[in-house]
Fold:
Amino acid sequence: MTQIDTGGDIYPAPGGKSSPPLSERTVRAGLLTTGARLFTKCLDFVTLLILARFLGPAEFGLVAMAMTAVLIVETLSEMPLGAALLNHQNPTESMYDTALSLAALRALAIIALLCVMAWPLSLLYHEPRLVALQCALSLAPAMRGLVSQKLTEYTRVLDFRRDVALDIIAKAGALVIAAILAITTGSYWAIAIGKISSTALAMIASFFLAPQRLRFTLSEWHVFSDMLGWNAARQLLSAVNWQSDKVVLPRYVDIGTFGQFTWADNLIAVPAQAIIQPITSPLFSAFVMARQSGGLGKVYLKASAGVYSIMAPLFLAMGMLADPIIHLILGPAWQQTAPILTWLAFAAAVGYAPTVLLPALAMSLNRTRVAFEKLAIEFCVKVPLIVGLTMAMTLQGLLIGHAIAAVFGFLVNLVLVGKLIQLGILAQLSSLVRPTVAMIPMAVFLLATQQLFSSNDGALQTFFDLAWVSGLAMAIFAGTDLILWKLVGSPDSCESLILRMTRKILRC
Structure:
């Protein structure tokens, strides 16, 4: 593999003599993408704050109804075109043309399908406004996939600066547009147009940052066929698993309660989107390199423990501080959202944080079928649970179903990772012991500080109390984890990597 000029810096091919260790290159790329995503999630947060101040739960509930079908169709039609190109060591121009052509066909299919579904769904939910709203929102997922496929060339060498630029351009533009519309119109269309403008800006900017010719061809279809086949099946189950609650819940609760659930679900998605999504590409690239050079099991354990050490404490803090978080972000009118946020946060700490890397691991091994098997097993458990418990107990039943499904999904993940890379269940669990134990003193501290928060507190006081309490809680977790790591002999793990990187940064 030759070197690629990426805007002034030469990034050597993996394995080159001047290359830093793979783990360090992956962490650097992850820090860049995560830092940028945190910034753009702040922009998202500001957008949501503005929307929440000028719009109510009913408006959010209406858009959430339309977005349910949009997200299902988008997830179902997702194509890992970039992953297929990355797995090919020397992609040709025809391969890039084929990838973009497939993305264009996907976009047309999404628009057609969502427009056809709009009227029947409006009858199902007795909401005629869904027709125009869903037809308009179909443009967002259609344009999201129509970015330049040449971005893959920079992903291959762990250069994600262009991806970062696209994200910032899209989110900043959407903030301005949605805020102006919310303030001037007070309409739910502010939410919808904000989503559409975000993907449109990213699509247009991608062809300036990574130019690609526009030529329709399917001549290299065979390069993508196997991965797309299993991925389509996986995405079908993923869409149903992910959105089953939003399909069922509106039939049993009022639109305001559904809006509250949607907001809690959106808040849970913030750390996932801000941290997991941006590091998935660097980790996938690292898994591919580790597969080629050996040592994939060790790389996976480090990555899995590192992701869990970041995500699980965040979800724990969100769950235990749900009341002040909702009070600060949404105001007293949304306070009933807090217990929903608590349930979803605890379920995510168990069922999401330790399992999120399986799809990337499976794709790096060209065994996407295993990721499909996980979703198929979860589908057989989660969907009947969600539907049955929601019908019997409405919102409370849905939340209980989430918790049970989270535990089951974690157990399934342990078995399937072992199947992929011959990594024992005990080895996987042992890598999670330290961060799990380190969360105990953190939880005790958070429980002891509950009395500091009051519904009568002003926004500024709530903000500062949340800042120092959550910051100190994370410091307690990190300190306890490092002590435990020292006590077991300072093994080569995610802790040692973080410390090594920190020393290098401090020496600069």
